[in-house]
Amino acid sequence: MENTKTPSLTPAQRLHFDIYGFVLLENVLTPDEVSRMKDALHHMKADPDLKSKRVYAHKRGDHHVLLGNLVEYDSALLEYAAHPKLVPLVEEIVGGKVRLEESEAIINRRDPEADIEELYSRRYKPTGFHRGTQHGWGTYIEQDKFHCVFVKTLAYLTDVGPDDGGTCVIPGSHRLTWPAKEMIEAALSDDKLIYQVEATAGSVLLFAESLIHSTTAIRSDKERTILISGYTPPMLREWPGNEVSPEFIETLPDEIKPLISGSDSWRWQRRY
Ligand SMILES: O=C(O)CCC(=O)C(=O)O
Questions:
Q1: Which has the least CB within 10 A, 205, 241, 254, 256?
Q2: Interatomic CA distance for residues 251 and 254, integer angstroms
């Protein structure tokens, strides 16, 4: 018989999330999913006409490209945004039904201009710590559990070892009301306050956007590909540039239309 139980975080994963602001979900995507999602992104990277397909691309030299508004481009990317193993976990953290707020990807490798000695001058090399919301107005506690109204799933489509640019985070910062700048300065003064993710392809980092996080400089010769979906309750707006066209929404199956379009708006179905 088919297992129809809604996926949920185990108590250990939920505790990890509440303490640290993130949890790494190992082997969520199958090798076939990883390969289709990666192929779509690499095809996109080489596409000279992304604008007409509503995709944005921000390049930092030839070694780093950030692609955004991806779900109309390829069905594998839509599949990731609506993934049945992930959306229920996001809803658990948000505390109710969600809509897609953004879809982005990064394909990057070591900056060819980087001074290798400098790259190894500290244990971790975050390139720009930031957060998308903050504790106190972007978060709440309900029935003793931490919730955040802006949550991301970040899939590693390539293995990331210690030198391969796994995301850096400041564990616990998701629940602190300190100014971000002070937390970042303090964490950068003592590497023990920073955690760098190591993961195998197909693993997914689930995190609250109130958690301070950063892309990490790559030191190895490996290329990294990641795929990210952001979610919020449906009455919130998509990140500018991530508007999905009404024509595309019309083509979607009814089950995922509200997720991709935000059409549920203020009719918020809470989940606890
Ligand atoms: O590149 C990464 O590992 C982190 C991406 C990131 O900072 C973000 O999605 O906001």
A1: 254
A2: 9
- At residue 259, the 3 state secondary structure works out as helix
Tokens describing residue 119: 């790259």
Q: What Å distances lie between residue 94 and 90, 136, 137, 225, 258, CA to CA?
A: 6, 14, 13, 26, 16
pTM for this predicted structure: 0.97
- Among 41, 214, 216, 227, say which to mutate for ligand 1: greatest number of ligand atoms within 8 Å of CB: 214
Domains of the chain: 11-261 (2.60.120.620)
φ, ψ dihedrals at 40, nearest 5°:
-60, -40
The CA-based angle 253-255-257, given to 5 degrees, is 65
The residues near 44 (Cβ < 8 Å, ≥ 6 apart) are 50, 55, 67, 70, 73, 74, 105
Hey, how many other C-beta atoms are within 10 angstroms of the C-beta on 189?
A: 8
What's the Cα-to-Cα distance from 29 to each of 10, 83, 154, rounded to whole Å? 18, 9, 12
Look at residue 218 and tell me whether its pLDDT is greater than 70. Answer: yes
Query: What is the atom index within ligand 1 of the atom nearest the CA of 165?
Result: 3
Side by side, the strands of the sheet bearing 213-214 are 195-196, 168-169, 213-214
d(CA 94, CA 177): 19
Q: Which atom of ligand 1 is nearest to the CA of 213?
A: 7
Measured by CA distance, the residue closest to atom 4 of ligand 1 is 215
Say if residue 2's pLDDT is above 60.
no
